[in-house]
């Protein structure tokens, strides 16, 4: 008789560990609230890390006034363009949602925690999420705020490439400087930016119409009025 095939032995603990990891990943949603203006290599790194432990829902911030998105030097690209950036990189492996939307006047979302409108935004953010969830941030101060809003924050390390620095390079490139901004974004995102270069040229000539309140950036347009 021939010898029996050798079957590798896996202990039950191994199966339980693998099962738990898969089960937790399937039942957990990570909420990533971000400007993504534009999507950078650092954002991609964060999202890839989150994908390893959860289903990922990305919510690019949107500011609306009279139903129209407010864009500025700090917020040049529309939600649709930013969504396109996410989709060319991640396809259908993540969910992109418009639920992180502020409606003018933006002042009504402040002060944080005391404003009923800010709690409505919190409800809007988690709408449609039935699983366990946590929110991601690389900022400790923002993490404390997310905790107070019961959004279960997970605080990660800040990445070296920031969207603000990439925007600065883009605006300098629009004035003729060689800034090598393409190295800071995925290739397909660079292509989208080049296709919408008129936006960069437009805002490179404008002053920054941004108001910073309680650590949050808002467009000046629509801050006080609808």
Describe the structure.
- With 226 residues, this protein is an alpha/beta fold.
- The protein has helices at residues 12-27, 41-51, 79-90, 116-125, 140-148, 163-174, 187-195, 197-204; strands at residues 28-34, 55-60, 62-65, 68-69, 95-96, 101-103, 132-137, 153-155, 210-213, 216-219.
- The N and C termini lie far apart (86 Å).
- Residues 1-24 have low confidence and may be disordered.
What can be said about this structure in brief?
The chain has helices spanning 12-27, 41-51, 79-90, 116-125, 140-148, 163-174, 187-195, 197-204, and strands at 28-34, 55-60, 62-65, 68-69, 95-96, 101-103, 132-137, 153-155, 210-213, 216-219. It is of the alpha/beta class and 226 residues long.
Shape: globular
Widest β-sheet, arrangement of strands: 5-2-1-7-8
CATH class assignment = Alpha Beta
Helix content: 25-40%
Number of helices: 8
Structural class: alpha/beta
Number of domains: 1
Instruction: Write the CATH architecture name.
Output: 3-Layer(aba) Sandwich
Strand content: 15-25%
Give the total of beta strands. Answer: 10
Any idea of the CATH topology?
Answer: Rossmann fold
Which value, in Å, is the CA radius of gyration? 21 Å
Average pLDDT metric: 89
The biggest beta sheet reads:
5 strands, parallel
How are helices and strands ordered from N to C? HEHEEEHEEHEHEHHHEE
The poorly predicted ranges are 1-24
Gap from first CA to last CA: 86 Å
The CATH superfamily is known as HUPs
Question: How are the secondary structure elements laid out?
Answer:
Blueprint: H1 12-27, E1 28-34, H2 41-51, E2 55-60, E3 62-65, E4 68-69, H3 79-90, E5 95-96, E6 101-103, H4 116-125, E7 132-137, H5 140-148, E8 153-155, H6 163-174, H7 187-195, H8 197-204, E9 210-213, E10 216-219
Parallel strand pairs: 1-2, 1-7, 2-5, 3-6, 7-8
Antiparallel strand pairs: 3-4, 9-10
């Amino acid at each position: 008789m021939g010898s029996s095939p050798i079957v590798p032995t896996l202990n039950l603990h191994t199966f339980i560990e693998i099962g738990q990891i898969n089960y937790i990943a399937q039942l957990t949603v990570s909420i990533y609230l971000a400007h993504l203006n534009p999507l950078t290599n650092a954002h991609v790194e964060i999202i890839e890390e989150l994908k390893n432990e959860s289903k990922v829902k990305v919510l690019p911030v949107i500011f609306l006034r009279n139903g129209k998105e407010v864009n500025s030097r700090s917020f040049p690209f529309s939600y649709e363009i930013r969504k396109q950036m996410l989709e060319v990189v991640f396809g259908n492996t993540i969910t992109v949602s418009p639920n992180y939307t502020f409606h003018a006047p933006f002042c009504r979302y402040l002060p944080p925690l005391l404003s009923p409108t800010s709690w409505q935004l919190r409800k809007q953010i988690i709408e449609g999420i039935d699983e366990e969830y946590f929110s991601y941030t690389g900022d400790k101060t923002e993490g404390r705020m997310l905790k107070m809003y019961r959004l279960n924050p997970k605080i990660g390390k800040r990445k070296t490439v920031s969207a603000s620095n990439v925007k600065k390079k883009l605006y300098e490139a629009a004035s003729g400087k060689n800034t090598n901004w393409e190295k800071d974004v995925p290739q397909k995102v660079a292509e989208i930016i080049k296709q919408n270069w008129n936006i960069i040229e437009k805002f490179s000539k404008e002053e920054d119409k941004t108001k910073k309140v309680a650590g949050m950036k808002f467009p000046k347009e629509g801050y006080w009025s609808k």
